[in-house]
Design a protein that fits this description.
Elements (H helix, E strand, L loop, with lengths): L7 H9 L19 E5 L17 H13 L3 E3 L1 H10 L7 E7 L4 H13 L3 E5 L16 H8 L4 E5 L13 H19 L5 E3 L7 H10 L3 E3 L18 E2 L3 H9 L1
Parallel strand pairs: 1-3, 1-8, 2-3, 3-4, 4-5, 6-7
Length: 255
């Protein structure tokens, strides 16, 4: 469904499904700032005049993974990161978390083969109002493709709201709640399991967005504040670097 055509009844239902607020887990004090979380977007076949600054080619993805692996990187899942940040569970040396945004169809064709080759866990964040859309911008994965991807043990599916608003901080309280609860409900209904993780569109958030993510039932949400994950403001604003900054991220975590 196009996000702007969502029926009023669906919005009301989503609002009724908002979970009652409960104390959120805190990031444990004293964790050394060593974990890098990266976010990728579209994987394009080649870098040409149509490529955008946040695009990546399969060769660039391979090169970045190999560069980090040669320096001792160990790739971990978003679930492992959550347990580390909230429970203090240890991670291996030089931990790196890989995420993807925007549900691009290229994820199946060009990203997953590379990630599988190196055994890299990955989270794919989906804006549910654009699933299967081939008319607005670059093609997005369909629900059938998402179900196929979801069966891969390396992949964790998360929410990126319904419409991927340019700045969710500007939404009304009701619209913000609907964006978070409806996307979660859609993913859970289509995939058949709980959706625990959220990424804020364009990394933009504030305290109100954090509360909305918690109240919608997510256990962790990602921003795009470019610092190691352990230095995050809260479990609902976990730091994440755009992949073009992977060298900076590595230096930051090594300090």
């Amino acid at each position: 469904m196009h996000p702007l055509s969502a029926p009023k009844g669906a919005a009301v239902l989503a609002l009724l499904c908002v979970r009652s607020a409960s104390p959120a887990p805190e990031i444990r004090h004293g964790l050394p700032p060593k974990t890098i979380a990266l976010t990728y977007h579209d994987i394009v076949p080649r870098r040409d005049s149509t490529a955008l600054w946040f695009d990546c080619t399969p060769g660039e993805l391979r090169a970045q993974i190999e560069w980090m692996k040669k320096r001792g990187a160990r790739f971990v899942s978003v679930a492992q990161l959550y347990d580390h940040l909230t429970l203090g569970k240890p991670l291996p040396p030089h931990p790196v978390v890989v995420t993807f945004a925007d549900n691009y169809e290229s994820f199946i064709e060009r990203a997953l083969p590379v990630l599988r080759k190196y055994g890299v866990p990955v989270a794919q964040f989906v804006h549910t109002g654009w699933v299967g859309d081939h008319s607005h911008g670059r093609p997005k994965m369909s629900w059938d493709e998402l179900r196929k991807v979801d069966r891969d043990p390396l992949v964790t599916i998360g929410s990126q709201t319904v419409s991927h608003a340019a700045d969710i901080r500007k939404l009304s309280d009701a619209a913000l709640r609907w964006e978070m609860t409806q996307s979660k409900a859609d993913l859970e209904a289509r995939l058949g399991h709980h959706i625990r993780f959220l990424a804020y569109p364009n990394g933009k958030y504030d305290a109100r967005c954090e509360r909305a993510a918690r109240d919608a039932g997510y256990i962790m949400a990602f921003s795009e504040q470019q610092q190691p994950a352990e230095k995050s403001h809260s479990i609902y604003s976990v730091n994440r670097y755009v992949h073009t900054k992977y060298l900076k991220a590595w230096r930051d975590a090594a300090r």
